[in-house]
């Protein structure tokens, strides 16, 4: 369960990463007030849309015949957010939305597309819901829609309520989310890649239980979301990190990933590139996978010749220290991201078969 400060932090981190979030709590916990207060604090518009009062066309667009053909016209709330260039879409009472309406929300939730109108990147998608057993005329969330959200179990403390009563519910606590950079993004991506390589059965684990399908569960999409949101959180912010991971891939896979990540104690990619000897390359293969995946992701994100060439150093060190298979797989990935006119370092010739397959034969010679 996330208290108010943690919920605000998770909503902020998800918003920065472009990941939709879903506040879940019993009735009367103040979900709507939190979202409206965040919008007011940021001085951006907040449009509340109740699916129980809407038709599918309110999300998929209303067909309108024009001189150029049929256009799917977006409703007023979407056009106003588009004009503002930022703000919040608050899909309130989500579990009262009929399955047909939920289906129409799919593109809105993940792609911020309403009809033929694409909302700006600075428009954040947040939903609120009570569990189906306490919602008025409630429905379970359909699996495709549930898998598009970070599910945040919201339980404000007594102190949170007292502070809100005192301040008038207009001053949400400060977010603990942080700015990110390519290094943090690469490290998070490497951790997810390393874990999934060690537990490929958890890449796609569609729940057997109907009730669980309406919650958080691991899929290719939600693992990518984990890698996208974690860079906006401090590693030391345990409450927010746990809320994000469990809210995206579910408790089973999430707890296992968090335990694995803590045990691996992964270094940041730039430190590894600067000094490959800082890693024990003879350690667990899944740790080596994660480290090299982070290095490769950093080089690919930078996109420069210098970064690409420097990333070969850790791969060579890993191969020479007894992890040639892992290093070879990383070499294939790194070779595919070569910038134009980048030559392969001489030390990387040991990966000649991979370089030949990637079309880098002349550079490897």
TrEMBL record:
Gene3D superfamilies: P-loop containing nucleotide triphosphate hydrolases. Residues 17-159 form the AAA+ ATPase domain. Transmembrane segments: none annotated. This is AAA family ATPase. It comes from Antrihabitans spumae. The lineage of its organism: Bacteria, Bacillati, Actinomycetota, Actinomycetes, Mycobacteriales.
């Amino acid at each position: 369960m996330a208290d108010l400060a943690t919920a605000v932090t998770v909503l902020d981190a998800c918003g920065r990463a472009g990941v939709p979030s879903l506040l879940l709590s019993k009735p009367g916990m103040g979900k709507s007030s939190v979202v409206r207060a965040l919008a007011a604090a940021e001085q951006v518009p907040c449009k509340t849309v109740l699916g129980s009062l809407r038709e599918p066309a309110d999300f998929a667009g209303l067909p309108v015949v024009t001189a150029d053909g049929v256009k799917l016209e977006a409703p007023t709330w979407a056009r106003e957010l588009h004009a503002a260039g930022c703000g919040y879409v608050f899909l309130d009472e989500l579990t009262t939305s009929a399955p047909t309406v939920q289906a129409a929300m799919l593109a809105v939730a993940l792609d911020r597309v309403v009809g033929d109108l694409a909302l700006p990147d600075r428009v954040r998608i947040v939903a609120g819901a009570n569990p189906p057993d306490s919602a008025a005329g409630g429905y379970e969330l359909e699996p495709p829609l549930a898998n598009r959200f970070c599910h945040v179990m919201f339980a404000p403390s007594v102190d949170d309520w007292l502070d809100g009563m005192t301040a008038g519910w207009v001053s949400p606590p400060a977010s603990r989310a942080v700015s990110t950079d390519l290094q943090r993004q690469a490290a998070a991506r490497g951790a997810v890649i390393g874990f999934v390589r060690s537990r490929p059965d958890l890449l796609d684990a569609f729940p057997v239980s109907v009730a669980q399908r309406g919650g958080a569960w691991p899929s290719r999409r939600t693992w990518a979301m984990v890698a996208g949101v974690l860079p906006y959180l401090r590693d030391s912010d345990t409450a927010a990190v746990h809320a994000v991971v469990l809210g995206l891939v579910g408790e089973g896979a999430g707890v296992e990933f968090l335990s694995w990540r803590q045990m691996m104690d992964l270094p940041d990619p730039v430190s590894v590139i600067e000094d490959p000897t800082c890693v024990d390359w003879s350690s667990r293969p899944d740790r080596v996978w994660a480290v090299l995946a982070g290095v490769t992701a950093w080089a690919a994100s930078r996109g420069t010749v210098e970064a690409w060439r420097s990333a070969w150093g850790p791969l060579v060190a890993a191969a020479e220290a007894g992890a040639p298979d892992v290093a070879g797989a990383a070499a294939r990935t790194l070779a595919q991201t070569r910038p134009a006119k980048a030559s392969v370092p001489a030390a990387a010739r040991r990966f000649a078969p991979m370089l030949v397959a990637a079309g880098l034969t002349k550079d490897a010679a």
